[in-house]
């Protein structure tokens, strides 16, 4: 427990974090790439078409992981925001705002691929049902957090305002998740629940691989963006000059 | 816990609780408007009027699909296991439209029994499986694949 | 209706958006580092000429 607390304490030091993340990155990107290749191969080549939807069901391997990440990242962002709000931990604030654009992009991908999937199956690119509408609201929340942060000059104040918005928007997450159960929607109920899976293994395996791949993309991209912000905010500090003129990683 | 941080944490929880309550109230009161579609039974129960635009959802009754002679107008029945409504539609049906499949039609009641649709969307369930598995389940008598006889579009 | 354009479109959109997501901070980072280094050199030159 002590070693773990020491580790957490160290992450609060920008130069330590910068060095440590630099060593992690090749590995996290590596895992992402391996999982991506495996997932795409299994999903596009080996997996069968769906009995009802045919080939268009292959969009699932992009759409579902992206939708999943859009929500997971928002939850993480809110948690980091709370840590920043209550404990004023600078690293939490930086990682929170670094997560926002990644979450926004996954949300955009979920919406776009969902739309392209809907046209040949449902017969429409879009409907204002509870699931699609609440996911769109999520995108606006992300953009709001990014915009609100940008409106402030002082990073610590910016983080606090953005964290408040992120916190308020958390209520949208259960709405998105339960929208297909609480209300009549065009979008079908969840295929993966705590009770089990409505997806055949041949399709479920590539789907899960892609979900994990997306997680490693998030971790990698988050580290890159966090390092960038650290350099940006600390550009006049000695540790930055030391790192840049010395080993450039 | 440090008193200042405790105060901030309580503040965070209060905000979260406040927003959750506000959202719950909003959603509960908007229930009627959140209804994306009604079922054939709802038409009977709520006495929905002729001429008002709304969405009607249900399953396509097997054997109820027929095309007019000139091929433009199609007619079928939507049921929810209890009641059913006849739907008339003269547009392009989605790929997934077939007997036994879920659909959501948008349009208006022409009369108490007939619904004229401007748009028909197919609704599918959350199951995904290869065609062979679906066929195997069919053979065992478990109805999985909606009758592929009438495949429009 | 062929489903292929929708499938291809979806994968392309994901590729473009994720590619941009991955690339943007790297490009910005390189620009920032170049800027900081150039300013560092300028300060060093200034110190050298001042003394």
Could you walk me through the main structural features you see in this protein, from its secondary elements to its overall organization?
Chain A is an all-alpha fold. Chain A has helices at 2-11, 14-46, 60-87, 90-121, 130-150, 155-169, 172-182, 201-233, 238-245, and strands at 192-193, 196-197. A two-stranded antiparallel sheet of chain A has the order 1-2. Chain A starts with a helix and ends with a helix. The mean pLDDT of chain A is 94. Mean pLDDT of chain B is 85; it is low at 147-153. Chain B is extended, with a radius of gyration of 23 Å. Chain B folds into two domains: 1-34; 37-139, Beta Barrel (OB fold (Dihydrolipoamide Acetyltransferase, E2P)), CATH 2.40.50. Chain B is built from four helices and six strands, in the order H-H-H-E-E-E-E-E-E-H. Chain B is α+β, with helices and mostly antiparallel strands and 153 residues long. In chain B, a hairpin with a 6-residue loop joins strand 2 and strand 3. With 51 residues, chain C is an all-alpha fold. Chain C contains one helix and no strands. The N and C termini of chain C lie far apart (77 Å). The model of chain C has no long low-confidence stretch (mean pLDDT 90). Classes of the chains: A mainly alpha (249), B alpha+beta (153), C mainly alpha (51). Chains in contact: A-B, A-C. Chains A and C meet through helix 3, helix 4, helix 8 and helix 9 of A and helix 1 of C.
Structural key phrases:
heterotrimer; B: 153 residues; alpha+beta; OB fold (Dihydrolipoamide Acetyltransferase, E2P); C: mainly alpha; 1 helix
């Amino acid at each position: 427990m002590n070693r773990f607390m020491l580790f957490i304490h160290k992450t609060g030091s920008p130069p330590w974090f910068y060095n440590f993340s630099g060593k992690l990155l090749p590995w996290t990107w590596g895992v992402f790439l391996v999982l991506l290749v495996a997932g795409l191969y299994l999903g596009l080549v080996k997996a069968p078409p769906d009995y009802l939807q045919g080939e268009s069901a292959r969009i699932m391997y992009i759409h579902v992981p992206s939708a999943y990440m859009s929500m997971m990242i928002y939850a993480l962002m809110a948690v980091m925001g709370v840590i920043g709000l209550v404990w004023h931990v600078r690293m939490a604030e930086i990682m929170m705002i670094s997560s926002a654009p990644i979450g926004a992009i996954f949300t955009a991908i979920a919406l776009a691929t969902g739309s392209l999937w809907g046209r040949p199956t449902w017969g429409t690119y879009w409907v204002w049902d509870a699931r699609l509408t609440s996911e769109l609201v999520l995108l606006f929340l992300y953009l709001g957090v990014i915009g609100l942060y940008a409106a402030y000059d002082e990073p610590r104040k910016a983080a606090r305002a953005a964290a408040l918005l992120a916190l308020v928007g958390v209520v949208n997450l259960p709405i998105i998740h339960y929208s297909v159960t609480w209300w009549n929607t065009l979008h079908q109920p969840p295929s993966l629940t705590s009770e089990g899976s409505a997806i055949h293994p041949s399709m479920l395996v590539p789907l899960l691989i892609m979900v994990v791949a997306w997680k490693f993309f998030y971790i990698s991209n988050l580290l890159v963006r966090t390092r960038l912000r650290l350099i940006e905010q600390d550009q006049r500090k000695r540790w930055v000059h030391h790192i840049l003129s010395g080993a450039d990683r | 816990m440090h008193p200042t941080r405790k105060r901030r944490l309580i503040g965070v929880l209060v905000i979260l609780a406040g927003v959750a309550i506000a959202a719950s109230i909003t959603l509960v009161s908007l229930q009627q408007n959140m209804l994306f579609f009604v079922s054939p039974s709802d038409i009977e129960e709520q006495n929905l009027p002729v001429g008002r635009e709304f969405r009607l959802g249900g399953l396509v009754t097997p054997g109820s699909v027929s095309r007019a002679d000139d091929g433009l107008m199609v007619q079928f029945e939507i049921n929810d296991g209890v009641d059913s409504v006849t739907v008339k539609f003269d547009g392009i049906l989605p790929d997934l439209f077939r007997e036994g499949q879920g659909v959501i039609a948008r349009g208006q009641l022409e009369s108490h029994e007939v619904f004229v649709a401007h748009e028909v969307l197919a609704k599918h369930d959350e199951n995904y499986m290869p065609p062979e598995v679906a066929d195997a389940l069919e053979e065992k008598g478990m109805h999985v694949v909606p009758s592929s006889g009438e495949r429009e579009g | 209706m062929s489903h292929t354009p929708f499938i291809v479109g979806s994968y392309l959109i994901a590729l473009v958006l994720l590619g941009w997501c991955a690339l943007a901070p790297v490009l910005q980072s390189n620009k920032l580092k170049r800027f900081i280094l150039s300013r560092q050199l300028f300060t060093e030159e200034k110190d050298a000429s001042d003394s």
